[in-house]
Amino acid sequence: MSKAKVKVLFFLFTAIALVLSACSGGNGNQEASPSGAASSAASSAGAPDSVSDSSGKRLALNWFLMAPANAVLPDGETDFITSTIEKKFNVDLNIQYLPGGTDYDNKLNLLIASGDTPDLFITTGTASQKMIMDGITADMTPYVTPEKMPNYFKWVSETELQRYAVENKFERAPVIFPRKVYRSYYIRKDWLDKLGLQMPTNYDGMMDAMRAFTKNDPDGNGKNDTYGFGTVGSGTTISLDFPQWIQNGLIGSFMIKDNQFVDVQTAPEVQQVLQGVKDTIKEGVVDPDWFLMKGNEAVDKAASGKLGIVVGGTKNFAFDSNPTSLQNASKAINPQADWEPFHPFAQTGAWTENLPDTAFLLSRDTAEKDPEKIERIVQILNWIASEEGFLLINYGQEGKHYTRSGSTITVSQANVDALQKDNIEKGNFMGVYQQSFYTGSQEADVLGLTVVDESMTDRDRAIADTIASYKLIPSIGTNVAPPTGFNLADYRKKMREYHVKIVFDEPDASNWPKYRDDLLKNYGGQQMIDTYTEQIKAAGVIK
Amino acid sequence: MKMKDQAVLSSSLTKPEAPSRSKLVKALRRYRWYYLMMLPGILYFLIYHYVPMAGIIIAFKDYNLREGIFGSEWVGFRNFQTIFGTPDFYELVRNTVVISFYRIVFGMFPDILLALLLNEIRKKWFKSVIQTVTYGPYFLSWLIVYGLTTAFLAQDSGIVNHYIQELGGTPINFLANSEYFRSILIGTDVWKNTGYGAIIYLAALATINQELYEAAVMDGANRWRQVWHVTLPGIRDVFLLLLILRIGHIMDAGFEQVYIFLNSRVYGVGDIIDTWVFRRGLEELEFSVAVATNLFKSVIGFILVIGANRLSKKFGGSGIW
Question: Which residue ranges are recorded for the region named Disordered (chain A) (predicted)?
Fold first, then answer.
């Protein structure tokens, strides 16, 4: 090897070494950033006045939001919500979004663990607790106040906010959540008619319909390929969609019964529920693939004409006017399809009233380092909760997607078509905001607005009326947090494992009392129930 | 070049009276370019593999996301107590070891078998085609493999159950059945990874001296005898090396795959340490427990590798070092 060659090689390797060390330097900085952030935060917190006069400065904000599965935020002006916010508040929004669920939580946890906590993020109630305990989140006392966010407090009361706090720390607040519950069973009315059956009004009627749908070839294709009922188990759980839960007096996931807190899936009555589910499955009227199906798969299967009854959770689940509804998806395959809502327990209690669930949280790092960012976010959130924000996010642009006279908002068919073109076909960006800040609900009456949706058919209005007539039982009144040191994930995992074992692998449900005992004693279930009971007592809901 | 190095080495060895310090300096000077060239590699290992090891200390701390690695509070062995106090922990360890063991047994032999078969093919184009085809599945993600598996094995819509029904049998929910779960794991693993595994053996086979075969033929060995006396001994060292490495990973039962295939009906046979760590560590943000578990796993793996290496040497193999 000649000397010149060696020299060339030497320079090459020095260059590589430099690049490598530069990378590692960047890495080191990143790891050190939480503490660096803290120290600079301390200095800027000492001089808050210096930032207030630069409120005109353009700020870059990182948000982490929940999105519907089909949403893709487009760039530029197409997304009129983001561009409105960016112009109005002089910010650059960097929005990351995923559909809610395990992947969402993991992505967010990873961001936080690597020191890139978003300035504003949305999580489920349970996930937010650990973040608050670990000090990831900012104290909201100076920010989320009736003075700073008057619009938000039209939607959420101060009592609710107080009860939503974790361990008396005001570090999370619920996003606007629906007051009405739209959960309902939907049934193929055309199948009922074909088989000469009545709309079921009770549990037995529902079971009869399921049997007939399975055995009497309701779609008339000469093949035995339909099922009475379908749901998703996500490979883990006995879905609460099974009517056997409510049939045995277990409604929702938590409830108050005889002045007692009940964790529905741990209750003694689960024995009868599991027995019932077991028997129903044995009859062959439930889609056999239900246990491993996830997400939207049962609704998709219903749309393809294989299922007679499914559960829908949104208002426009089967509306004619909702282009993506089950009704329209089914009609594309079979024009006769007609999904109608019903509930076997409409009179006695179909579900519990809603509690706030999804939370928005603010990064403590940002609050300490860049309080003006938080101030700006709070202004934006207040705008989102305002009439203007509500209409833009939920109904689109005035004149184009709706017309307004006084407090009446009118949405015509032409408006709906325009919205379809401007939103749904452009990646359903409105869905990201609707899902994240309004939990997908559009309760205009809170703002004193009346919405006349001309595209809604009489059938749609009838569906809305039917669902509105279902009786709801009161919620447990407050959000509850599991005791410290108790591992909820391990507990629920074991609980579901026992449920599933009974339903699939045991001759009957007689082992439940034994399993329940194990859960309460060895997996900390009793401790959890006691802690929840205390918290509910403290809120004054039970005595 | 190599000759020169050896000459230098031997000449320095023959002069033991020289002071060792100056010898070291001399050697360093002499090979400075090589040391410089080594530097990036060494830096890489230091920065990305050794420095992060300091993170292990959070196994003994109550890791708080905000306080960071060094600011969190020390808790001694509390995290380990939590792990060993988890009621399901022994079931998790058992599942992990059993699945790993199956993977070693049923994962290594198909690799060798495929390599041997490919090695016997004389038509070059045919060999290339087969090799490419068998190598293909390696590039699919487990998510896709799971999708394919569902298409075959789902209870209502799967092809296999369709035929079972046609033939008058009752459909079986393969993916949610404890009896089939591990077999499905191993089966899909073999399908996905055999082509890739065979490549290493093919490389080893290519290094076998052809004269050995010629000699064997001269001695009257038929094909089988050649495989037995020449081919297999030729790849023995590679096999042992891979075996030892895999034994070291016995506490890793393939998280990516198991996590995707797992459901609550098969927790009893399929839930492994890593899926538990994932649920507990990442989903519940208990990083300390996760790190402690992995430390425990690493210690076991380390002991096993050392042990396997010793055994291999004892029985005349070369070991890995």
Answer: 30-51
CATH assignment at residue B91: 1.10.3720.10
* Test mutation, A106, A126, A504, A518, chain B, max B CBs within 10 A: A504
> Does residue B70 sit within a domain?
no
Residues on chain B touching A11 (C-beta within 8 angstroms)? none
Tokens 């606007």 found at: A176
Structural domain span for residue B9: 2-63
> To which H or E segment does residue A394 belong?
helix A387-395
Do the interacting molecules here have an ipTM over 0.85?
Answer: no
Q: Do B47 and A287 touch (CB under 8 A)?
A: no
Domains of chain A: 50-179+356-389 (3.40.190.10), 184-353+476-538 (3.40.190.10)
Domain total of chain B: 2
Q: Does B147 touch chain A (CB under 8 A)?
A: no
Q: Do B207 and B83 sit in the same domain of this protein? A: yes
In a domain, B167, yes or no: yes
- Asked whether residue B50 falls in the same domain as residue B100, the answer is no
Contact A330, A302 (CB under 8 A): yes
Measured over the CA atoms of residue A264, residue A268, residue A273 and residue A274, the dihedral's sign is positive
Among B156, B176, B178, the residue with its CB nearest the CB of A287 is: B156
The 10s digit of each residue's pLDDT in B6-28 is: 444 444 444 445 567 788 888 88
Whether B65 and A21 lie within 8 Å, measured CB to CB = no
pLDDT in tens, B219-255: 888 888 888 888 888 888 888 888 888 888 888 888 9
Query: B32: nearest CA in chain A?
Result: A10
* Helix A488-505 / helix A270-282 crossing angle, nearest 10 deg: 40
Q: Are residues B22 and B131 in the same domain?
A: no
Instruction: Tell me if chain B has a CB within 8 Å of the CB of A11.
Output: no
Instruction: Determine the angle formed by the axes of helices B232-248 and B178-206, rounding to 10 degrees.
Output: 130
CA–CA distance from B83 to each of A485, A524, B264 (Å)?
Answer: 13, 15, 21
Same domain, B14 and B145: no
